[in-house]
Amino acid sequence: MLTLPLVALFANIMGLLGGAIMCWATLDITIPGFLRQLHSPLPGWTFWIGVLKAPTFAGIIALIGCYEGLRVSRSAESVGRLTTRSVVESIFLIIIADAVFSIIFSYLQI
Questions:
Q1: End-to-end C-alpha distance for the chain, whole angstroms
Q2: Whole-structure pTM value
Q3: Is residue 53 within 8 Å of residue 102, measured between CB atoms?
Q4: What is the DSSP string of 46-78?
Q5: For residue 93, what pLDDT band results from cuts at 50, 70 and 90?
């Protein structure tokens, strides 16, 4: 629950840094100019939406992983089967949760 928001924050920072470097290298846009123009297309809620979604997705992954982990029997085959099942269930539920977030944010006009 703590590390997934940190990973999301790190990925956002690295993506922005990479975009700034590519704009500087290929388009001759300075880093301050990039940062100045960055504020106009991004509304204030963009950061907070990611902060809200990341721990929710982490909770889904943790709950599914714990649930399926407690169902493992005493065989290696059971561990592999239920691990695969937990990954598939987590991906599916994260897609559903992301769709629900999209509907809610669309309704709230965020």
A1: 24
A2: 0.76
A3: no
A4: HHHHHHHHHHHHHHHHHHHHHHHHHT--SSHHH
A5: very high
**Pairwise CA distance, residues 90 & 99, whole Å:** 14
* Angle between helix 3-27 and 45-70 (nearest 10): 130
pLDDT tens for each residue of 94-109: 999 999 999 998 998 8
- pLDDT tens for each residue of 44-55: 777 788 878 999
Question: Exposed (0-12), middle (13-18) or buried (19+): which is 73, by Cβ within 10 Å?
Answer: exposed
**Closest to 110 in 3D by CA, of 52, 56, 39, 54:** 52
| Spatial distance between the Cα atoms of 97 and 94, rounded to a whole number of angstroms | 5
